[in-house]
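Marked as duplicate of an earlier ticket. Keeping the data here for the record.
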Amino acid sequence: SGLLTRLQTSAPTIRTLSSSNSFSQNIPSYLWKLGRLNHVAIAVPDLEKAQSLYKDVLGAQVSETVALPEHGVYTVFVELGNTKLELLHPLGEKSPIASFLQKNKTGGMHHICIEVDDIKAAMTELKKKKIRILSEEPKIGAHGKPVIFLHPKDCHGVLVELEQA
């Protein structure tokens, strides 16, 4: 009984997050809500090689290449079950991806995309909070839905795309 008592008193205390409201009480209520991570976008210098990596080497389901002239990119989506990767390649010399690849020759993570339930309300609220939005109005994105981009300097160095869910 002495050993059992010592084990019980010397066992580390394990704390778990309770499902109480204490955590969510600190979250202000908004007129809009963040949803799920829609995709992580990766700029690639060679779109065919990148498609082949995900399709032929890793065995992922990979979409066809789609040109988005308004955004100056070619896009390919890689399905991952819980989210997607968006492979981005420049479409024209004025493409923002072309300038990204000039600085990052081998490519790299370009932005993350998070769904929102009300993009207009999100824009209004974010402007009040001094978060810069890179366009005056939402543009139609690769999924045919309105999107906006938030300035990376206002988002800890990450370019954030918000997409209407």
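See parent ticket for discussion. The CA atoms of residues 40 and 112 lie 5 Å apart.
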